[in-house]
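Submission sheet (multi-component)
Chains listed below:
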Amino acid sequence: MIKKLLFHNFLIVYRASQWIRRHFTHTGMLILAGLVVSAIFGLNIRQTLSYQIFTLLLGILLMSCISVLVFRGKFRFKRVLPEYGTVGQKLEYRILLENLSPKEFNNLTLLDELATDLPSFEHFLKARDIQDKRRNFFDRIVGYPRLVSLIRKTRGGLIQPGKLETISGKDKIQQRITLIPVRRGYLRFATTAIGKCDPFGLFRRFKKYNHQDSLLVLPRLYEFPPINLAGRRKYQHGGVNLASSVGDSEEFISLRDYRPGDPMRSIHWRSYAKKGAPVVREYQDEYFSRLGLVLDTFAGGYTEIVFEEAVSVAASIAVSSLQQDSLLDLMFINNQVYRFTAGRGLAGVNNMLEILACVESAREENINELETLLLQHMNDSSGFICILLAWDKKRQNMIERLRSAGIPLMVYVISMSADSDGFSNMTLPDHPEYFQVLQAGDIEHSLQETHGRNR
Amino acid sequence: MPQEVIYQKIFDNLERVIKGQAGSIRKLLAAFFSGGHVLLEDVPGTGKTTLAKALARSIAADYRRIQFTPDLLPTDILGVSIFNPRDQQFSFHEGPVFTNILLADEINRASPRTQSALLEAMAESQVSIDNDIRPLEKLFFVIATQNPIDYHGTYPLPEAQMDRFAMRLKLGYVAHEEEVSILTEQNYMHPLAAITACVNKEDVIKIKESISSIRISEEIKHYIVSIIRATRHAEGVINGASPRASISLMKTTQALALIDGMEFVTPDHVQEIILPVVAHRLILDSKVRFSGKTAEDIIGKILETIPVPV
Amino acid sequence: MNDMKTQNPGSVLLPATPPFLNGCALLIWGWQCDFILYAIGMAVLLESARFIHWRTPITDKEFNRISDLSSVIFMITVVYVFATRSYHGIFTILALLPFLLFLLILAQTWSVQGNIKPGALFISMRRLNPDEPGFNNPGIDLSFPYLMVCIISASAGKQQENLFFIFVIILVAWTLWALRPRHTGKYLWLSLLILSVAISYAGQLGLFRLQELTENTFLQWFEQYMWRSRDPSRTTTAIGSLGKLKLSDRIMVRVDTHGEKLSSPLYLREASYNNYGYGVWTNFQHTLRLIDPLPKGRYWIINDQIAGNDRISISFYMDDQKAIIPVPMGLNSISKVNAIEIEHSPYGALSMELNPGWVKYDAKFNHERIDDAPPGKEELEIPPVYQKELAGLADQLGLERQSPAQKVDTVKKFFADNFVYSLTQTERYPRGKYLSKFIFETRKGHCEYFATATTLLLRAAQIPTRYIVGYAIDEYSPLEGQYIGRARHVHSWVLAYVDNHWQMIDTTPSVWAPLEAMDRSFIEPLVDLWSWISYKLSTWDADDTDSNTSGFYYWLLVPVLLYYLWRMFIKDRVQNIRRRAKDKQMAILLAGTDSAFFQLLPALEARYVPRKPGETLTSWLTKIEKNIQGTELRELLALHYRYRFDPSGLSKDEKQRLEHKVKDQLATLH
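Outcome: structure written.
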């Protein structure tokens, strides 16, 4: 009951603080603060002279607000967005702004806004925030910073307002805007607002325009070391497909005698000279490794955070693996089976990241399906990299069964809690280096630790 | 003939064949005169081959074209010593690299081994086969092309090798009117057929030699170096531009000044040519790549922050 | 001051203040609050940084520590001031604010960075994950906030209102001018400012009206319930209040008897009243007469007819500048206190004027002789509503036939035998009936009931009486070594005029003190300890006549300042920022920097659009060319370029041509 009341209060506070931050410049906030403080001390006129300061600042603020009451201008906007963004990485895009009226405008602020839906009470209760660990006790109990975090996540990004010095009549200019995406998936731009500042520089008045766009944000990327599964390089049956777009592969293995019909270019002249009869180089189809990247999507009772981190880990592994020369199969289940291959002349990292940007957790819990999928493809793959959301009995059994089938595995488990003691019994008995627990919110730190340990 | 006139003639010739690409042609010729090589990164059908051919014809130079395929061998490029059983002798058959203007088409389709064979030759201006060193032509200009879209079966040039190219240009699609006029012209015949030599090779070689006499002040040299150094610790850059880039930049700006008929380099020349010359040499962090930031953005930012000499 | 600005690229929130603005604000504050010498020193320390180019690097952690130190000083000051001055302390804190925040602004000014990270100021921001998305934490430049603090602090002084207003207008206008956005027209800005000042002035007049209105409505209420100062002309009793009478345990009075133990409670009187009506005792004849101290100072003789045999030292907490202080009855003199004024009323009330807070004074008295003014007709008046009943009671007790002394004893016995002490009043009666109910029915009540009833009953027996309010001191505090009087020790008793002298009568059952004490809260010992500490603190500087000196803060500041001075002069730490900037410039040989074009450039920039640092002259010129006629500028630029970037330079003729052309252009611009 109290929580609900607090929640509604928070929303009011949030909206108020947003309004103030948007409509007052830093100077304006300084004057506002001065106003409040002088009001407190000036309550008793007899005691101090603060009332003079109070009335002066009040007069100034009033004049500021009045002087921007009229804002007549017509503008047209166009956004030039890049292809993608990545969570946590600053992204710059441009807004082309056209002033349709003949009047010159000065001291403008450009505010590009993403669609913001304020969360419901239930959503707020369920939401967890990684940053909470670092907050102090008071903030955690009360929950206001958590609400702000949640609103930011739903919105998807933080945009810094752009400052326009001046734009002449009927002129076009270009403004650079910085955006930091906060979650993966599609970000929806909703409005662009242009604000005019008063001559004192305290208060802004905005004109809003509907201006919609969308931008795909890829999952957060971490630095992953190259994964070395003790798997065999298997002959890849895709040879025919590949060769048709790639041409004869060129792994040179040996020399053999010339046979009529061999192309002239493959004659090895040196050996010809030595031998006296034509000798030809022989090639063979390539071998390379093909890894399966398996993403556990059965979030079930586990929080959003764990799933998001799992997706980020998958994306990071994809980026690092595809830099080496191997094929990568991304596999996950969400109502149906998804399998997507990239690398070595097939689709690139970008496409895989796009898919990961939009992946959602499965509604029903059915880890057996995943097991079936893996067993199906065990013959094609040199090994599997499994990213699991927990280490419960079901998953342990699945991994056991896969290992007993002789498949090389690298297992990552994403976990929320900090204690590593609980994980000391989580390990693959005979190959502990192929099992790693990563802590949600601190993945890089966990990676560094094991990296150091393994050295 | 004065140098600007030579340039203008070549330029006009090329313009006849490639419409609406005046800026790119100017930059390409600047790279040509400065002695560097050019990488054209473009979608198919924008006139890359036509451009190379037209240039070769305009200066009455030799022209060869190599179509890179995945099974191309280094010997196919450089040449091979063939054993003649009758004479019991090896005779060297020169590869297409022994020419004046070489168009290396779709360089990203060949294996890395083959790519480096060509790049080595470009860097050294000579070829060593069977312990013989054979120098290339004095006037040697490579236009390599790369298709940015087709990833199937490609080996994109590793960034470390991109450094060998003085410039990377993108032609792109032309404006509406220009495309219409292309249709009009090509209705009758290919304009390439009408191109004849307007200057000769010696004139061109003379221009190339006079590049070094274009004056460049200390201040501008410092400006160039400041920019290049700034790329090394820019945010999101793993590897910035090398001193080779500074030299390339200096030479191409000198070429631009010469083209403009000036005897000294101005900061405008530097700012005009810096993106094609430096952007392809930066190696970006993968995270930054996936935030839509490009090398051009980074360099553009550097240009805005470093005060330009006035 | 351009090189100063480039030192803090991170502070985009608010820039640094323009030169001397902070200094002026400090001086105005010093003038208003009587800290002018300190203000001059502080202003010099801050503004001299503009001329001296030595700085010391201060890390974020060190800023955190400075901020924490400032907070600690702040808290100690707040505690001290509130302990000694109570509510009024808030205005003292206001006046002291520039001192308390000076460390931070000083550190910022003399540091290399020139700004402070928000983590230094807000602890909640210190632990945040640096990777969490957010635009890189810019440093905060505290100069403008500090300016605001100085201006508001200055308002705590109260000198010369009109002049102060003018100074405030100047400071605020200066601030706004420094922070105004680009492209704001001068005249528009000025007219807005004038309008603002006009509104402000109108607002002030409005405020005065408002305050008057508020005061008239609420003053009575305030005085009665908020302020504890005794009003010698009127006191409202709790007769007729429902519920339990509970007064706080707060220690109001301390009495040092110099080693003597009290055999019976010591009565300290605050005021005497003679007129009763509906729960309120009044004394309209009370007049205060000024008493001059003896020439040797700090000694006031109240009544030289009384021999001052008994001597006690009383400490009393004065709420206000001028208040009634509790003194023993039979007072001879008051001494050992730096009172500004002492006034005495023949009814026994003593008013002292002194700075608010704990005051200590010696009182010499003779407890056996009470020498108040003789009674008048008010001392025999009984309110009509009680006359009948009390006459009847007097009859009942047979008071008529007794001698005055006997009458007193009878009344005492009457109350002692039949009445009980109680703090609670549960029944609701009509107004004016409570006393009757007390006397005839319930027979239980608290001291005000007893005293009032006794007073009126004795009057019914033709004995003049007065109602006395004050403290009954009985509780000894082993912690303090003296007797203490708490708020709940406030007591009422009676003075009766018997046989031509005043006699003290207290009919309240003597169990009242223990009964009241039963209600004490369990944290009372702690609260008492705290009270003693703050009392001790405030009497520490009791010898100072002017309590504006807060000397001991500066003792705290001095070692800190010394420490930082020491740090600054370790040579390898100090950096001379000016020199480094120069070194960089010298490395490049700049040719042609004396080109005449550079005279033209600022004029063009001011007229059209300023040039960005990365913009070449050519592209900038292209931008503004739309607004200029003629191609003269292009020619000019070509010459200038040659002069600057061609190692061969210009010939003499060409140089002259350049100069002429520049002159022509400048002429056309103006």
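Remark: Residues 214-305 of chain B form a domain with the Helicase, Ruva Protein; domain 3 fold (CATH 1.10.8.80).
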